[in-house]
Amino acid sequence: MEVGRAGLAWAAALLLAALGAQAAAGDFDPYRVLGVGRSSSQADIKKAYKRLAREWHPDKNKDPGAEDKFIQISKAYEILSNEEKRANFDRYGDAGESQGYSQHQHRQFHRFHEGFYFDESFFHFPFNSERRDTSDEKYLLHFSHYINEIVPDSFKKPYLIKITSDWCFSCIHIEPVWKEVAQELEALGAGIGVVHAGYERRLAHHLGAHSTPSLLGLINGKITFFHNAVVRENLRQFVENLLPGNLVEKITDKNYIRFLSNWKKENKPHVLLFDHMPVVPLLYKLTAFAYRDYLSFGYVYVGLQGTEELSSQYNINVYTPTIMIFKEHIDKPADVVQARDMKKQLIDDFLSQNKFLMVARLTNQRLFQELCPVKKSHRQRKHCVVLLTGEGEKFAEAYEAFLAFAVANTKDTLKFVHIYNDRQPDFADALLMDEEKYRGKSAVVILERRNNAGKVAYKTLEEAWQGSKEDNFILLDLLDQLRTDPNLLSSETVLADLNDELAPMFLIRWLYSTLDYLSDCWDSLFHSNWREMMPLLSLLFSALFILFGTVIVQAFSDSSDTRDSPPSEKEETAAKTEKNDASFSKESNRIPKKGFVEVTELTDINYNSNLVRLRPGHMNVVLILSNSTKTALLQKFALEVYTFTGSSSLHFSFLSLDKHREWLEYLLEFAQDAAPIPNQYDKHFLERDYTGYVLALNGHKKYFCLFKPHRSGDEGASPEDYNSSLHAEARGKSSCSPGSRSIKTKLHKLSFWMERLLEGSLQRFYIPSWPALD
């Protein structure tokens, strides 16, 4: 009897909890979140979602609650955009798995007398949240956090990421191993992340995780899945295998001189790690990956035969791990650290203070910006002393004297660097006004960067640098004056970005990219499921079909008909036009080079090359048309712009209004009075006719100029009359109607607009970034 009462009490408690969960879920109203009514159409819901998403996106809105608001907006749109979920919400007040509780309660509890029956939806919210391990809370990832922070950070350290979900019993099984490995790897310098597939479906889908639990590694923005047994050794080895194999070089008595002497070629300090472990510890590999852009690493196994000379020369304690940094002088280290228990924080502090040579060579713009940062205030002034010199023994003496001066006078506010004139000619020419005076000699310049656009203030030593005592006294005196008189740097100039001297050749980069892609495909053949392989297989079979189809068509085509056929009328017209063009004056910079106008369609395939990545100074002139007006508008457009096709900075395209109306309307929002504000009672708003609009798009500077169609005979007409003619035109009235006749005159005066475009007298409408075309 007591057992029965206890069972009834337990069942009642579970029932009350379920009802409480359902009431909590009912507090969320997607209609209220998006600000739409229950009778709103999908178009209204989509428009409201896009407006709110732009307003509350965490990357644009810095409000502390922007991310939570954005999540609510996305969740509301996910419910209302799905007709089934929307119907469930309208019927039960909840779009989740717990909807329809009252409808199905008999089915869920009909076996109560035999044993309490429940499914996952019964415990949908409160119990799942309490069951989740709190140790994973600090590792939880969200989509925006992953894209904006984790992916860029993966170029500095690898990440081990777990995909989990509620009521995943396999996740519970691997939890002890995961917790131990996560704490161990985080202490060594690896990144840890956890994605809850139930709450971050978008991120889980982006990572390619279709089941839970899933473990994956992320390094350099590349994802690799873990496919072995979940034990500590396998996970450690998986993270270690993510790292490149050439991070740390094995050093012995035979190769240490060669290794340390490469500082000049690589323009980096070199680090020697001394330890009694036969293999390179994972801590050192992770450290080498984090600092690979600044330092070169070598590992010395002090217990190995063949390292006695090395250990003796640098007086190494074989029982204590030691790290030495060598810069321009390889006979003695620039800095040393020893510790029995080498921790990551100790290593980071030590290496961060020794990332550069004493007189580093400026080989790229990033290095220049780090060594010579822009001043933030008068108290944070930092000056750079630059030796402009050349390569070879002829300049060795001047460089050695400059290095000795730098070692004796380096300070936190003063950096010494050098540069090769023949490798960075633009940089040298901008600072040396009298090139003949310094030809074949070295020169010293003191400079201060004023802004990120390349503006610098500088002063050049009047005489060439030879490294004499007199040169040292002159330079030291100028540096002393600079501390009290900032106006000593009286000259100003703008420096172009430095060439990247150490960047690999294009062919080598292409080869590495191809090898990485082939490696990914090979790995996918063995580990990926068929759903992940379908895009690759589809691409492969499509390429084979096109290849063999082309061969078969060419084999059966009769080439003789093509050779014997007379030239077409279009070809004759083009030939005549080209002959007439040859008689034009060659001095004009807008002589058409062809007998036709090349107009390409702007699609998502060529969108980046034809607009987003358009070269500076180039513009794309885009005609807006529809399927019904395509032929007429293209003919008129070609006639109007033909005289401007000789300009190499102009490109001509057309955009289909039927496919990309949303893209155009988003762009016109930035133009004054170009896109009217929608009226919810205007049933013709979605039919608004933009055919005949012409946009001149500057992809580099992110602005556009707008040409609106010419309307003949309606100067005194009201906007309502004009709109009615547009709607009549869109419905396809007869050619005798004013709407049909206006198509022929829409591009009237376009040539005058093109003249003003080249003069630069048109109004420009700037946008923050180009929207995606699709």
From TrEMBL:
Top-level taxonomic group: Eukaryota
CDD domains named among the record's database cross-references: DnaJ (cd06257), TRX_DnaJ (cd02963)
Domain called Thioredoxin: residue spans: 118-244
Location of the protein in the cell: Endoplasmic reticulum membrane
Signal sequence bounds: 1-25
InterPro entries recorded: DnaJ_C16_autophagy_reg, DnaJ_domain, DnaJ_domain_CS, DNAJC16_TRX, J_dom_sf, Thioredoxin-like_sf, Thioredoxin_domain
A single cellular component GO annotation: endoplasmic reticulum membrane
Gene3D superfamilies found in the cross-reference section: DnaJ domain, Glutaredoxin
Region (Disordered): 558-587
A UniProt-annotated Pfam family: Thioredoxin
Function in brief: Plays an important role in regulating the size of autophagosomes during the formation process.
PANTHER family recorded: DNAJ HOMOLOG SUBFAMILY C MEMBER 16
This protein's name: DnaJ homolog subfamily C member 16
The organism of origin for this protein: Strigops habroptila (Kakapo)
